[in-house]
Amino acid sequence: MNTVLIANRGEIALRVMRTAHRLGWACVAIHTDLDADAPHVRAADRAVRVGSYLDINEVVAAARESGAGYVHPGYGFLSERAPFARALAEAGIALVGPSGDVMDAMGRKDAAREVAVAAGVPVVPAYALDDDPATLAYPVLVKAAAGGGGKGMRVVRSAAELPEARAAAAREAASSFGDDTLLIEKYVESGRHIEVQVMGDTHGTVLHFFERDCSTQRRHQKVLEEAPAPTISEQQRAAITAAAVALAQQCGYTGAGTVEFLLDNATGEFYFLEMNTRLQVEHPVTEEVVRARTASGAQRVDLVELQLRVATGEPLSIAQDDLVLEGHAIEARVYAEDSFNGFLPQAGRTSIVRWGSGDGVRVDHALEPEQEVSTSYDPMLGKVIAWGADREAARATLVAALDGTAILGITTNTGFLRALAASDEFRDTTIDTAWLDHHEVPAPDAGLARVLGAWTEVLLDTLPGSRHGAGGPWQADGWRMGADPAPDTVVLGDALVVVDRHRGTVTHDGRTHDVRLVSAADHTVHALVDGRAEHAVLNVQRDLVDVVHRGQRWVWERPDPFGDHVGTVGDGTLLAPMPGTVLAVHVADGQQVAEGETLGVMEAMKMELALKAPFAGTVTTVGAAAGDLVKLGAVLFTVEASE
To answer: Does position 83 have pLDDT exceeding 80, yes or no?
Structure first.
């Protein structure tokens, strides 16, 4: 039995294991203390602890200890590190990938450029570093020769900007890659990122598996990827794929690799950018659309299977003419980040995790309910891939799959991805590599999520055993002489929402929605809202309502009406715990008060709340007067503690 150690974690480790197990291989996982109980560890036949996924000596030792004859690096971490490839070779262990020499040749943009020129592959017009800045045709791109991911890159639009841009790019490159070598190239204002999947064996054969379009990216980080490229002609496809094969042959490439090109929208010309000497994050879209014609019919390709077979020395068993395209596939990368708040990384513990499903939907992930998500590793949680007979069918399937994806407990970019995939710009293929850097995707409106959240809160609070029994303090008792039952008022954050179950309406911010419940089970509510089918996944807790609607997460606090106090921060500031009316103010600025003394009274939901001093001291702020309507979180009083 062959044994492979997967030198990675998360969804790619699980992805490799699925194929390896299907082929009868044994799988070894590595893990840090943080990942001791991670899904990839539980899925493996054996697991070995390492201090870091980046420690070459520890990973090689783990392979030796476990008896693994092969190491699959996945992507990221050590996957493109030539010293790692050489260390494995010295230990007599096969890397599922190219040699260290090939990584050296293709891992640096300047060296790879020379290989491309030798192979006759078009490259972006470049300038020498010592050329007179006044002679350059602007705009130009200054970029690091080493590394990737958009680091050490600056767009320069005039000779005056060049010195500062070069200095900044060099500093960033040195910090990120330990190498401040730079290139200066023509900058393509509007381009599409086209990349070609290649596979080479140890017998000299190199095949291409057609191309992908990864133009939808933000700051050089891919967001949506698709295959085949929707905007290129058959002539362009033939030229680009032939160039990729020529490049791979020139450097003696083995295993799976990706050759990236930039297609200039203005001229239709394409230029070599770089080669990734590993399996790509977006490889599933290729697997979903490429078919290998065999005697038993056309079969989907499994790129990981081909990687493993090539690593054992097997020749590629298919010919280029056997590979054909069928349909269209689009992938969306789900990250732990708040896309509508500066794309800030998110961390925490998931509560509910639901992934989209259905015909044409594939999800590669390693995320579970009640799982801790740390900022210690890459924020990607999973990938949602949709296949369709054509691009529009694939796009519709992807939107539906993202609608069905609900991750609660932490905020993700799923709502952003859903809005982007549903946009006219993505539909019409007008998004180029710079589009997301200059345009904003409109944030989803919270209205429908709030309607479904309020309706569900009332539904749950009327059930026996709810947080306040059968009918909490927010609920009217329903008894009105000669009249319909009274509606219920719900507080979600700083908003008041009126739910009238008898009439089937929800009112908020002056707008009334007609609501007809279809079903409610397993944290999922399906309803007709204003005649349109909507659904949401909810986690209603004592202190908050967590809602995901169309992929977007919304979290609202639920105030506790039985708490006979208001919100207090450490400096003695008293905040309104909910929207309401100030009924009375008993103190004035500068007045001495005792701990627990009532400073004022407010009313919310026809309940009176006493506003009490958190400690003895002097009132320094009176933020409201009797009769004032105040919002949630409004500053009502500040007390300065006595010495």
So the answer is: yes
CB neighbours of 147 closer than 8 A, spacing ≥ 6? Answer: 173, 176, 177, 179
Q: In what order do the strands lie in the sheet with 323-325?
A: 297-300, 290-294, 323-325
For residue 106, give its domain range: 98-122+193-326
Nearest to 385 by CA among 373, 400, 371: 400
Residue 354: closest CA among 346, 363, 345: 363
Q: Domain count for the chain, please give it.
A: 6
Give the separation between CA 579 and CA 497, rounded to whole angstroms.
11
pLDDT averaged over every residue in the chain: 92
Please, which residues bridge with residue 71 across strands? 5, 95
Please state the three-class secondary structure of 476-529 as a single string. CCCCCCCCCCCCEEEEECCEEEEEECCCCEEEECCEEEEEEEEEEECCEEEEEE
Q: Does residue 101 register a pLDDT over 80?
A: yes
Please check whether residues 176 and 224 belong to one and the same domain. Answer: no
What is the per-residue pLDDT for 483? Answer: 55
- Report yes or no on 565 lying in a domain: no
Angle at 628 between CA 623 and CA 630, to 5 degrees: 70
> How far is it, in rounded angstroms, from Cα 611 to Cα 283?
59
Q: Which two tokens stand for residue 388?
A: 């369709």
The helix/strand/coil state of 39 is helix
330 sits in which H/E element: strand 328-335
Element (H, E) at 60: helix 56-66
Domain annotation covers residue 204: yes
3-class secondary-structure state, position 608: strand
pLDDT digits (tens, 9 = 90+) for 330-350: 999 999 999 999 998 899 999
Helix (H) or strand (E) holding 397: helix 391-403
Indicate whether 469 pLDDT > 50.
Answer: no
Residues 482-495: tens digit of each pLDDT: 556 778 888 898 88
Both tokens of 341, joined, read 């708040």
Which residue type, as a one-letter code, is found at position 59?
V
Residue 1, pLDDT above cutoff 90: no
CA distance 146 to 529: 54
